[in-house]
Structures are given as C-alpha cells and as structure tokens.
Amino acid sequence: MSKRILEIKKDVRIIAAASVVGHEEHRGPIGKYFDVYDGDDDSFGQRTWESAESEMQRVALSIAKRKCSIDDAELDMLLAGDLLNQCTGAGYGLLDYDIPYIGLYGACSTVAEGILLGALLCSSVINRCGVVSSSHNCSAERQYRFPLEYGGQRAPTAQWTVTGAGAYIISSCEGDMLMDTVSIADVLPGCAMDCGINDVNNMGAAMAPAAADTLLRYFASGGITSPDLILTGDLGAHGAEIFKRLLGEGGYDIAECYNDCGLMIYDIPIQDKHSGGSGCGCSAAVLASFVLRRMLSGAYRDVLFIGTGAMMSPMSLQQGKNIPAIAHLVHLKREN
Amino acid sequence: MSKRILEIKKDVRIIAAASVVGHEEHRGPIGKYFDVYDGDDDSFGQRTWESAESEMQRVALSIAKRKCSIDDAELDMLLAGDLLNQCTGAGYGLLDYDIPYIGLYGACSTVAEGILLGALLCSSVINRCGVVSSSHNCSAERQYRFPLEYGGQRAPTAQWTVTGAGAYIISSCEGDMLMDTVSIADVLPGCAMDCGINDVNNMGAAMAPAAADTLLRYFASGGITSPDLILTGDLGAHGAEIFKRLLGEGGYDIAECYNDCGLMIYDIPIQDKHSGGSGCGCSAAVLASFVLRRMLSGAYRDVLFIGTGAMMSPMSLQQGKNIPAIAHLVHLKREN
Predict the structure, then answer these.
(1) Which helix (H) or strand (E) covers residue A243, if one does?
(2) Which of residues 45-84 of A touch B (CB under 8 A)?
(3) Is A107 left (phi over 0), alpha (psi -120 to 50) or beta?
(4) Which of A73, A224, B179, B238 is deepest in the core (most CB within 10 A)?
C-alpha cells in the first residue's frame, strides 16, 4: 500500500542541529536561540548574496558536526538542497566536506524531505547523515522577484524569504544514543498537488491544501492525533488560516497546538513582514533552534513537523501555470 | 565508515523502464530502442518547451508502469528531478500521479541518484518506487545558454543537451521477481568536487575527475573490477578521454569495456553533435532502452553505471565560480 506512514523501526535520533541566520531573524522573537547570526549586512563575509547563502550552509553544518563531535569520515551522506537555481546554495556551500552528497529539491519543504529520507536511510542502510538547507532573502528576491534595488511594493499576502540555514546530524549509532536527543518516530511523504493558485504573492494559499492533505492522511492512517505541537514550515498568516479551516472541515480542531515557523521567526507587525517568513531556511532554522530546544527541555514531547514547499519557477508562472505544492511530515519524539 | 560501497542486501530489481526522446535522438544509432519519440518538432503536443519536457516525464512513467502492470497505489514513492530551474520538469510532469513525491537534484546524475536512493529504500523500508528524469534541448538552451533563435556558434568541446526522459520502476516485492529483470547489486554515492574547470563549454572535463574518483574508490573498496560495461552518463568525447586517462593513472585500463551514454546516443560526425550528448535525459533514456535491453538479452552481465553531473548555474559561472561535479555509481547485475 502506498501513501502510508513509514515507521522508523530502529532508534534514529537527531543528535545535533545548528542554525545560522541574518540580522532580521536575530531581531525576531526567537532570535536568541540561533547559533550564529550576521549582525551587519547578511553577507557573511562573501562577495555575492549567493556565496553568502552557501557560506551559511557551510557554517551550519560545521557547527552541527562540532556539537556532536562527528567528523566527515563518520557521516555516510549529506542530504541537502535549497531554492537557488540548480541548488547552488548546497552545491557550492558543502564542497569543503569530504562526504557523499545527495542533492534534494523540495522547495521550502527541503529540510523536511531531508530529515524524512535521512531517518529512513539511517533506520536501515547507513549509520549517520547530515541534512542541510537554506535560503537568503537577497538571493531569493533577485531570482524570484526583483533585485533589492528596485524597491518593489509588497502585497499583504506576500511572505518574506528568511535569511537562514539549518543543519542536522541524524544517527542510528548505538554510541550516539547516550546524547541528549530527539527521536524520529515515523514519517509521511507528501504528494505533489495543484490547487489552482497562481499568485506568487500568496504561496501560503497554494501550500495549505498540501499540508492539510498530508496531515489528514496521517491522522486517517493511524498517526498520533494529539501531539503537543503541529508545526508547518512556512504557510504564513494567510496560509495558516486556510490550513486550520481545512483541518476543521476534516474534523480536527488544531488551534490549541498549532504554529507555523513563518509566524514564529518575526514579530510581524513591528518588523513589517506582511504574511510572515518563508523559504527553505525558515523551517530549517526554526526547527534546528527554538523547537528542538523546547523538546529537549521537556516542553514538547510529540511534534508533527510538516515541511511545506511551493514548486513553481518564475518561468512556469510567466507561462501561466499554477503553483504545485507539497508537504512532507516528520513525527519527532522526545523519549523522556 | 563513510564513503563506502552500500550493498543492496535484499533482492531489488528494475522491473520496468521506459524512454521517450526527440527526433534527433530517434535518428541516432540506438534510435530504435526508445519507446516513444516525437518525429515532428519535439513539442510533444505542448505549447512550451518546458511543458514538452514535463510531458516526456509523464509519458515515460506511464509507459514504465504499464509495462509491469503497476498502478499508482502500488508505488510508495516517486524520486524525480531534472535540469530546469526549480526542477519543474518533474514537479509539473508528475502532478497527475497520486504517488508521494521526493524531488531530487543531481544535475545530469539525477537518474543515477534516483536509482541509488530507490534501491536503498526498496531494500529496507518501502516495496516499490518510480525514478524519473529528463532534459529537453530547447528548454535547456534558453535556460543555460541562448534562445535557439539566437543561433550561437558551438565550441568543439560543447555537448548537445539530449531531448529525452527515462522512467524506471524499482521493486523488492517477491511477486515481481518472476518478471524478466535486472538487479541492483550495490551502489556508491559520489562526493561533490571542484577541479578548477569554469568553462561551460567543457563540462566533460569538469565531470571526468568526479567520475574517476567514484570508480577508483569503488575498485579500492572491493567492488567488482571486471564488469562487462563501465557506462558513464554524459562525459562526451573530451570528458571520456580524460576519464580513461585518469583510470589509467590509477592502474586500470578500461578501454575494452567502457562507453559513455553521450557518445552512444548520436552518430556524432553525421549529426554534428560536437563532443556528444549531455543532460539528465541522456543517461536516463540510454540506460532505460539500449543498455537494459542488452542486459536482458544476456550481452552484459555486470554493468557499472556512473551518472555524472555538473552542478553549476548560469549565475554561479557569471560570478566567477568553478563547476562542481558529482558522480554516483550503480552496479546493475543480470542474474542468469
């Protein structure tokens, strides 16, 4: 049977995670939880915004490895990707590491896709892997919209691409299980779907049905129905409302336990972020910092993390296509 | 230990494969082995080249499914990607299928990356998956180089992006093992590397060292050293020469058993294809047609397929970066 929950049958854990963000993200309500930030101009010492994004990935993985004292030779694979054309954030950013490289593309769901695949692989055929993803506001703006210098007006439903990267070390090695960690209990890969939205300034509306489809399928297939937190990647304010309504129509009132990384990372009215944060780096950095920290402190025991992605390109929209969306679910568990 | 050969411990097979190509590919020396071709204008009945590429992926998967009488509900996952920005060839092309979707990006190595991951997953946590990849000469030319109308002159080392798609159904289900199939014995994921090449008209030179690194590592790690065929994805004429020389320097004379999909797909002098074919669709279509057919006929027993990818973007080259390359190895075996 396809479209089923895939149980992680071995003890597989996130043994370390790290986050790197820009100055706007550091100014936000969970700013103090990120490991590294650029308090100046978000260039991370690089000549181009694209190189700055690669540098964030490089630094995030370096910190995650250091946190768990794992070196290159102890990692079987890197699973990584990002929003830049040809996924060059990861392709260039992780060149320094002498680790087999598996490139992913799931738009803003990339980190969830990576954790999902990493958990499946670590439960069976490999011991440890790294998962890395990122986005940078300045590289994304010029690729998807306009160069910053253009100073375009933003729509109320528009989201703000997060400058951030997250890196995770996933392991099933017995020796690693002594560390203070979070487990991956089960995962549910999402199906790509087109719900008729073609407004690039309203990607939350395009992604919300995919997120609802995945979560309702999870509930219907015997997944846990009372997690401490249901966390979507980057639906933003408008998408989150649609998502909650769709869950309600499916018979689930999730208002009490729901949040979205795009709503958590900025103080939206004060920082003028319209519908909230978005981008691969949004969920990658929020999960790697605040959420995992809260799990380790015992505040959350079961978290359903649903990475959301809008898989259009600027050209596909110019050609009149809709925005296909996807949502992958990862059930994280804190054992004690 | 990382960077090791990953043995496929269960009986995992490619139970069906299908290929869809354009008219130039059908004119070539292995043209009769492809399942479907557009003998007219390579538009596959679509309004844009990008939609034509998506259509090739859709059709290729449809034929592969039909060949083995598998429907959507019997496939646990699709692993797919391509060269277009935001991998929209796969993102849009596979929307019709109600199957969980995992997006990949490995440039022209994508089909090898997909078969590698598919084999690992089918050996452990899932039963069956589909792998799909493609490229289209006309969508690639305008994205990476110039619109066709510009009529630019090509360098002698330049390769010709193949218009083609390949789809594969991978299975570990016992019932499927009665079919006439090819097994996946082991795989070796590649490490991304930068060898200092920044000439987009000589991608064979950028990728050859990555292919040699993967194959030499495979030999050194106890992989089979006398396959019937060593098959690289798209090194082209110049890259293939460099690859053979690097293998020779490593102590292996592979001249007798080596070929490259980019050299097989066109009659290069007659079709004026300079250094040969390239693109995700090159190895995806050649392996799915001629090579698997030859394995089933008993001509080849052991094939080492090394998918090769150049992971730059037009912007990364404009910014003065080199071309990072990668090569993933899949050991295919015909049991009887």
Answers:
(1) helix A236-249
(2) 47-48, 50-51, 72-77, 81, 83-84
(3) left
(4) B238
Measured distance between the N- and C-terminal CA atoms of chain A, rounded to whole angstroms: 33
How do residues A128-147 score in pLDDT, each as one tens digit? 999 999 999 999 999 998 88
User: Å from A299 to nearest chain B CA?
Assistant: 31
Q: Which residues pair with A28 in a beta bridge?
A: none
Its sign, for the CA torsion B288, B131, B242, B300, is negative
Q: What is the DSSP letter of B100?
A: B
Strand partners, B132: B80, B167
CA A221 to CA B26: how far, in whole Å? Answer: 46
- DSSP string of A93-162, one letter each residue: HTTTS-SBEEEB-BTBTHHHHHHHHHHHHHTTT-SEEEEEEEE-HHHHHHHHS--GGG-PPPPTT--EE-
CB contact under 8 A, A191 and B326: no
Query: Is some CB atom of chain A closer than 8 A to the CB atom of B1?
Result: yes
d(CA B61, CA B55): 10
Residue B327 backbone phi and psi in degrees, to 5:
-145, 120
CA distance A78 to B113: 13
pLDDT in tens, chain A (336 residues): 678 999 999 999 999 999 999 999 999 999 999 999 999 999 999 999 999 999 999 999 999 999 999 999 999 999 999 999 999 999 999 999 999 999 999 999 999 999 999 999 999 999 999 999 999 999 999 999 888 888 888 888 899 999 999 999 999 999 998 888 999 999 999 999 999 999 989 999 999 999 999 999 999 999 999 999 999 999 999 999 999 999 999 999 999 999 999 999 999 999 999 999 999 999 999 999 999 999 999 999 999 999 999 999 999 999 999 999 999 999 999 986
> Residue type at B117?
L
A274, A154 contact by CB (below 8 A): yes
CA separation for the pair A16, A167 (Å, rounded) = 8
> DSSP strand E in A22-64: where?
36-37
Contact (Cβ atoms closer than 8 angstroms) between residue A15 and residue A296: no
Mean pLDDT within B99-124: 98
Distance in Å from the first CA to the final CA of chain B: 33
Burial A173-212, CB ≥16 within 10 A → b, else e:
eeebeeeebbbbbbbbbbbbbbbebeebbbbbbbbbbbbb
